[in-house]
Amino acid sequence: MNREEALELLNENLKTENLVTHSLAVGAIMKELAIRLNQDKEKWEITGLLHDLDYEITKNDPENHAVKTVEMLNDKVDDETKNAILAHNEKKELETNIEIALYAADQLSGLIVAAVLVRPTKDINELTVKSLKKKFKDKAFARGADRDKIKEISKLNIELNEFFEIGIRGMANIKDELRLDG
Ligand SMILES: [Fe+2]
Question: In the chain, which residues have pLDDT < 50?
Answer without folding.
Answer: none
